[in-house]
């Protein structure tokens, strides 16, 4: 890396080198049998330069080609965007991101947990076709630049996904997933939840096409929050494409809703001491009691907006930074899931959805097919619904909620409670 930086600085007044090294260990079971065990190792280098005020970039996975890497970065600066930032000189933040137990976890222990999940499903529901994926990830990142910065950190992650497939009035898939930065086996709980959802699906129910109360579980909520995440993205704000432009300190949602991005959570799925540019991580309040409080910026976007980076410059070795959320949290409420269900006379509880891309996500619109959802009647879950679509706008929906759950769940990089919405458009063909 030092050699790359030295070569670049012969022709560029400012330069930065990033090295990303990742090792993933996926273990997969299909139809109750071990089908895949492997280790995948990737290392790559990226070079960003500023020449005559413009940004150039190049990347490689072959360090012997460092001269080509430098020449390509310098050449691309002729066509690059005008730089509106300077490289950082220090990054003092400290965030726990490495679990030593997880980092040293042997393959045999991962396989053992997969077999435990297979046995748990087969024992109680032998007719269920199971697929299980467990993946350990160890990630290393180092950044050096011409301003004297030289920093590095390591990160561990564990992902578990358990899917049960059964033939019942067609094919029914139920999936449970968990993602964490610290070793915490969740397979027993996940198997129990999966089997419970399969039992609830024994009966098929119909729903009227109407505006109905809809309870989104933590697992399904990210599909709604995508619109908000895009709205607070500094790049969309800078382009004038976000519906949240110029609306800081405006009441957008119910006062019970607070959304925070926090890259400083110990062992968080998306935690880091510094972002992909070396800017220290931080806790950023986006929505506070329903009021818009902030956006997410990387260095370049912040420069264009005449403000400071929030430490959200996400990147791989082969890409330029871009504003991206880290750990996105919705603060919890005061109701159990059972209480939230009991308060709905007739409506829907949703665990997973399909689609969304056909909607105007940037505007906050959503149109989702209910992949796994159940009808609530008289405050009780009575059966599964099929061929049902839920649509609305996330900003309008979040102005009319009935309750927020008191328990939060990790769903990828989200930490979420369940949220019950007063009324969303539900259409059904059954």
Uncertain residue segments: none
SS-based structural class? alpha+beta
Rounded to an integer, what's the Rg over CA atoms?
A: 24 Å
Number of domains: 2
Strand content: 35-45%
**Helical segment tally?**
10
Largest sheet: 7 strands, antiparallel
Assembly state of the chains shown: single chain
Distance between the termini: 61 Å
Shape: globular
User: Count the strands?
Assistant: 23
Average pLDDT number: 94
Estimated helix fraction: 10-25%
How would you sum up this structure, described in words?
- With 430 residues, this protein is of the alpha+beta class.
- It folds into 2 domains: 2-197, PmbA/TldD superfamily (PmbA/TldD fold), CATH 3.30.2290.10; 203-430, no CATH class.
- It has 10 helices and 23 strands.
- The chain has helices spanning 2-8, 66-76, 100-103, 107-124, 187-200, 222-231, 234-238, 299-304, 337-342, 394-397, and strands at 14-30, 33-37, 40-51, 54-60, 129-145, 150-167, 171-180, 204-205, 210-216, 259-262, 283-288, 291-292, 313-314, 322-323, 328-330, 346-354, 365-377, 380-385, 388-393, 401-404, 409-411, 414-416, 419-428.
- A hairpin with a 2-residue loop joins strand 11 and strand 12.
- Helix 1 (2-8) crosses helix 2 (66-76) and helix 4 (107-124) packs parallel to helix 5 (187-200).
């Amino acid at each position: 890396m030092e050699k790359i930086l030295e070569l670049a600085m012969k022709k560029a007044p400012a330069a930065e080198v990033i090295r990303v090294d990742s090792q993933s260990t996926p273990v997969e079971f299909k139809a109750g049998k071990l089908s895949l065990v492997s280790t995948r190792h990737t290392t790559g280098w990226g070079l960003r330069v500023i020449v005559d005020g413009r940004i150039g970039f190049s990347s490689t996975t072959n360090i012997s080609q460092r001269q080509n890497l430098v020449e390509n970065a310098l050449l691309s600066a002729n066509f690059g965007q005008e730089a509106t930032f300077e490289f950082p000189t220090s990054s003092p933040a400290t965030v726990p991101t490495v679990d030593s137990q997880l980092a040293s976890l042997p393959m045999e222990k991962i396989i053992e947990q997969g077999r435990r999940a297979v046995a748990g499903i087969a024992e109680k529901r032998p007719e269920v076709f199971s697929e299980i994926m467990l993946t350990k990830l160890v990630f290393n990142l180092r950044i050096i630049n011409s301003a004297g910065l030289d920093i590095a950190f390591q990160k561990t992650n564990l992902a578990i996904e358990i899917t049960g497939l059964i033939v019942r009035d067609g094919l029914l898939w139920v999936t449970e997933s968990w993602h964490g930065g610290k070793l915490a086996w969740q397979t027993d709980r996940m198997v129990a939840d999966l089997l419970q959802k399969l039992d609830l699906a024994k009966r098929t129910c119909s729903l009227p096409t109407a505006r109905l109360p809809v309870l989104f579980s933590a697992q399904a909520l990210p599909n709604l929050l995508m619109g908000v995440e895009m709205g607070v993205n500094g790049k969309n704000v800078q382009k004038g494409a976000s519906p949240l432009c110029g609306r800081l300190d405006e009441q957008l949602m119910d006062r019970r809703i607070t959304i925070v991005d926090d890259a400083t959570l110990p062992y968080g799925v998306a935690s880091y001491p510094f972002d992909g540019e070396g800017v220290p991580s931080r806790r950023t309040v986006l929505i506070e009691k329903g009021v818009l409080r902030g956006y997410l910026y990387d260095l370049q976007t912040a420069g264009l907006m005449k403000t400071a980076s929030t430490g959200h410059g996400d990147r791989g070795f082969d890409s330029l930074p871009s504003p991206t959320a880290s750990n996105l949290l919705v603060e919890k409420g005061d109701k159990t899931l059972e209480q939230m269900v009991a308060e709905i006379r007739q409506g829907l509880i949703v665990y997973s959805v399909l689609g969304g891309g056909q909607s105007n996500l940037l505007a906050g619109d959503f149109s989702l097919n209910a992949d796994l959802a159940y009808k609530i009647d008289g405050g009780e879950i009575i059966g599964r619904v099929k061929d049902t679509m839920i649509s609305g706008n996330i900003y309008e929906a979040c102005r009319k909620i009935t309750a927020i759950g008191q328990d939060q769940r990790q769903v990828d990089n989200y930490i979420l409670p369940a949220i019950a919405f007063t009324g969303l458009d539900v259409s059904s063909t059954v």
